[in-house]
Specification:
Distance between the termini: 53 Å
Structural class: alpha/beta
CATH superfamily of the largest domain: Vaccinia Virus protein VP39
Oligomer: single chain
Radius of gyration: 21 Å
Strand order of the largest sheet: 8-9-10-7-6-11-12-14-13
Bound molecules: S-adenosylmethionine
Largest sheet: 9 strands, mixed
């Protein structure tokens, strides 16, 4: 990571690798047997209707999605920008969406069809990045009141997503945005209904590991490649420290990489009865197939390109050379999602590089309109989701 570059998320907060400082966030996991996480579930702060409306006509029911509250103004506008996109990426049927402002909190109102099973899916409802709670909503005629009934949400996290939230360092990709990237990649892939616990996620520009830790929390096996040796080393040290402090069983194997200078690779196995892989390697992302081979073919490749590059050269060069490598690793049916500073290198320039890598850019709304402002420096960050070519149909015997 280029620590001094402007425009990185994470601002000027000092780098620290301690798991001790906890930061409030919307993914407090509930207690669950498989979960090594100590925090209780968070109850959405809202005026809840507790009358029994279960089983009542679901036809065109009115719902509200609470936009995940953020501490900083910068990130509250980020979640506001991304929430409608995430909901529509999940289900194009969730339009039209309308903004509601209830009790000082932003909600997205929508009507769900009777056959919208996701409203019953507590695990799915718990994993939206930009939404901290879903509600069935009822307007009290004449009283100008809105009643909200929380829809159950709970997720059997493998580790607490605090693992991603506790570290603060320059260059960190915002956690909500990273979860958004993970989700839109999954929603666009053939694995949209497959549990995270059965997926492999690869971040070929993994920095301090935000993608790896969030995907691990959801239950995926994960791997990352980072060329900055110091970043990879502090990330590996953090994994060991976090596991010790949170009493997560950990097997760690560190190895020197041949033919790669001072290259190193860490193979972590977390858990006991149920285990997950976390692989971290130092090196150039163009070497990813070799560096991350122990993961197996990833279902999802998720990355946030480096920022602060003054000239177009590096981002164009990196995309031109790395995209075909990442494409070659993807499991058929999988998806690649990445973000980049599109201020001077827009979507119209990035899309041909993705196509040249043999991938198909997902162009349908809302995937074609995920460009958003991050801060005063990065005024246009864009997101591109791309798919490998479909496999030819099986020959009929
Ligand atoms: C925006 S940062 C990713 C931050 C990460 N998502 C996090 O939250 O910690 C991009 C990362 O890509 C790394 N990088 C840039 N070029 C690379 C290359 N050719 N090979 C491997 N990593 C590279 C940078 O060192 C930087 O850490």
């Amino acid at each position: 990571m280029r620590a001094a570059e402007p425009g990185f998320e994470g601002g000027s907060a000092p780098r620290q690798t301690s798991a001790l400082s906890s930061v409030a966030h919307p993914f407090r996991p509930p207690h669950a047997e498989e979960c090594f996480c100590p925090e209780p579930a968070r109850i959405p702060q809202t005026f809840a209707y507790d009358g029994d409306i279960r089983g009542k006509a679901m036809d065109g029911i009115q719902c509200a999605a609470q936009v995940a509250p953020q501490r900083s103004t910068q990130y509250s506008s980020l979640t506001r920008d991304l929430a409608p996109l995430e909901l529509q990426a999940f289900s194009p049927g969730l339009t039209p969406l309308e903004w509601l402002h209830l009790g000082g909190i932003d909600y997205l109102g929508f009507a769900a069809a009777a056959d919208e099973p996701f409203l019953q899916d507590a695990e799915l409802l718990a994993t939206f990045a930009t939404v901290s709670g879903f509600f069935q909503r009822r307007e009290e005629p004449g009283a100008h009141e809105t009643w909200l009934r929380p829809l159950p949400r709970a997720y059997p996290y493998f580790v607490s997503s605090d693992m991603a939230y506790t570290r603060r360092y320059k260059g960190k990709t915002n956690e909500v945005f990273t979860q958004f990237l993970l989700n839109v990649a999954k929603f666009a892939s053939d694995f949209r209904t497959v549990p995270w616990r059965q997926l492999r996620v690869f971040d070929p520009l993994c920095g301090g590991g935000t993608t790896l830790f969030l995907a691990l929390a959801l239950g995926a096996d994960v791997a990352g490649v980072e060329r900055d040796i110091k970043d990879a080393e502090t990330t590996a040290a953090f994994v060991e420290q976090y596991a010790t402090e949170n009493k997560i069983p950990l097997k760690a194997h560190a190895e020197r990489l041949r033919n790669a200078g001072k290259g190193r690779r860490w193979l972590f196995q977390l858990g006991k009865s149920e285990t997950r892989k976390l692989i971290l390697a130092t090196g150039d992302t163009r070497e990813s197939p070799h560096l991350a081979a122990a993961l197996g073919r990833p279902h999802l490749v998720v990355a946030d390109f480096p920022y602060g590059v003054q000239h177009l050269g590096p981002i164009e060069e990196l995309a031109t050379e790395a995209l075909p490598v990442w494409a070659s690793m993807l499991k058929p049916g999988g998806a690649l999602a990445f973000s980049w500073d599109a201020t001077r290198f827009g979507r119209e320039k990035m899309a041909p590089l993705v196509k040249a890598a043999g991938l198909k850019v997902v162009e349908r709304p809302p995937y074609d309109r995920m460009v958003h402002r991050v801060d005063r420096v990065i005024k246009r960050r864009d997101v591109m989701v791309a798919l490998p070519p479909a496999l030819p149909p099986e020959p009929v015997p």
